[in-house]
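Chapter summary example: a protein plus iron/sulfur cluster.
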Amino acid sequence: MRGIYVHVPFCVRKCSYCDFYSVVGGEEAREEFRALLSVEMDLLLREFPGEGDAEADTVYFGGGTPTVLGPDRLCGLLEEIRARFPVAESAEVTVEANPGTVSGKDFACLAAGGFTRLSLGVQSFQPRILATLGRIHSAEEILPAYRDAREAGFASVGIDLIFGNPGQGEEDWISDLERAVTLLPDHLSAYALSPEPGTPIHAAIEEGGLALPSEDALAGMYSAARETLAAAGYLHYEISNFALPGERCRHNMKYWRREGYLGLGPSAHGLLFPPSAPLGLRTENPPSLRDYKAALRSGRLPWSEIRNRDREDAWKEALIFGLRTAEGISPGTLSEKYGPPPEEVREAVENLVASGALLREADRILLPEGYWFVSNEILRRFA
Ligand code: SF4
């Protein structure tokens, strides 16, 4: 079973910290995007007919702000995907949405049209932090949006939060966590703010107009998330993700388990396993609607990068992604899929196990939870 990811490259306005590819666009651009996605799927099936046979059990519309397209276009796109690729009856079909941009009626249309899971970009409940992040929604819009989503009948509703914001203290963060938990979401993501160069928030920090919390304060916030959410019954199943039992995001698990997924839309990434690349073919679409469109209009797949993975790449990727999760990786299973680990990889794993930075448990290798906050330091050894 594989996944299908669709990157919808439109937002109402750009948030101050965002470096995902998205533009404001207008009705015409949105309608054209819908048509381009169909062309992309048809070209993919022409070049890789085998992709039309593998069943998908997850579909994820991310972005950008997918709901900018409106429920009718989104449901229409889902139908177009189903018309080309087999999608399991029980598939998890996720759409990301922002509070204040979708009405209760729209949520109901999405749920009736086959979307089963909603990921709500709350980020914070505090007006001051929402303003710093440049979010378009107000704190007052969160609760009604959440209630509307619940009433619409999605099987699963998740909330995204950001911590480590300029001017945010641990108390502020705990207050956000507690307010989130009172809503009883099925899933909760807690990402540390990462101000990327080129974003307004990064410029403001560089110029001294905003200051980030210290590393110690960030570590405290991460621990607070772990404790608050564990006490509320959430399982910490990936470095930045928490879920009630049985509510892990099945689509994102595919990334961490290095399973196959199609990446459609500008800036989308994919991982295919065609017969010509049994260890994986990584695809990347250009982060530009213009380039995406130009490629498709000239009858080419819009891939700006294609990398055929070898045994070493496959092992390293499996470790980098798999060790982010509580389940870790199984060297036995990876050996069956990719062949034995290259010597350099085997040695790096053994050294990390010997130093205590990795843990061997039965047939699995895990990153001990105490190291999750500094996971990048450890995982970069496999980069
Ligand atoms: S809504 Fe999401 S994708 Fe759009 S600008 Fe804000 S953070 Fe970026």
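Key point: The CA atoms of residues 64 and 103 lie 18 Å apart.
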